[in-house]
Design goal:
Number of strands: 8
Helix content: 40-55%
Strand order of the largest sheet: 5-4-1-6-7-8
Number of domains: 2
Largest sheet: 6 strands, parallel
Oligomer: single chain
Number of helices: 10
Radius of gyration: 18 Å
CATH topology of the largest domain: Rossmann fold
């Protein structure tokens, strides 16, 4: 981010007290290295096995692909739709758990969350991952964050704004007093749509250009740099 845009972001952050910080998980607070290409490939193969055409869904992420295929099946064979959905989500969970067992929190994650709590800033995680995978990497999660909203806990996952709104409701935090921190353009998109201050980090799959295009107001090398950002913006 240029010096000008960084200064502009700091001024915007300074204009509203920070009440809460909502984090993405994979690539933001932890390294999981999920093979999303393999995940989509497995879901596409399963979808084809159920007799569904996959050409029109090839550009969809795995979760959205499953939803579309299940809805198509449900219109004609509800029982097979349920079986398909269960099988697809089981396969996704297997991939996530395998990645989680080899994953780890980024250095400084716990220290960051402790420091935010000392500042009386609420914290939450929203993730398209399953909660079992998150807890595999972060078993003492509940000691450090006020809420963790995984995909099982919301009917619509990010980039749908309801995922972030669910976290804000738990935190009793207003959108304009919240920072949405993530490594992927989807995180910037959901934060922008809800009205949060969007902070991109470069520890995951996103790059500076993509995060900026998606609406990042500020970009940091890592989430651990967030405290310095708050200090420079004059936040207590």
């Amino acid at each position: 981010m240029s010096a000008t845009s960084k200064t502009s972001g700091l001024r915007a952050l300074d204009a509203r007290p920070c009440r809460a910080v909502v984090f993405d998980f994979d690539g933001t607070l932890a390294r999981l290295n999920i093979d999303f290409v393999a995940m989509r490939s497995d879901v596409l193969k399963l979808t084809a096995q159920y007799g569904l055409a996959v050409e029109t869904a090839c550009d969809l992420p795995a979760l959205e692909l499953i939803d579309r295929a299940r809805a198509t099946l449900a219109a004609v064979e509800p029982s097979r739709a349920e079986a398909y959905g269960a099988a697809a989500h089981t396969r996704i969970m297997e991939i996530e758990l395998a990645a989680a067992r080899a994953g780890e929190l980024f250095g400084g994650t716990r220290e960051l969350l402790i420091a935010l709590r000392k500042r009386r800033i609420g914290t939450a995680i929203i993730t398209r991952n399953c909660l079992r995978a998150v807890r595999t990497v972060f078993p003492d999660l509940d000691q450090f964050v006020d809420a963790a909203i995984s995909r099982e806990m919301t009917p619509r996952v990010k980039p749908h704004p309801d995922h972030l709104r669910t976290a804000l409701a738990v935190l009793s935090a207003p959108p304009d007093g919240t920072l949405m921190v993530g490594d992927h353009p989807l995180d910037m998109q959901v934060g922008r749509e809800v009205g949060a201050f969007t902070v991109g980090v470069l520890t995951g799959s996103g790059n500076r250009e993509g995060l900026t295009r998606a609406g990042a107001r500020c970009i940091l090398a890592s989430a651990s740099d967030l405290l310095d950002l708050l200090d420079r913006a004059g936040q207590p």
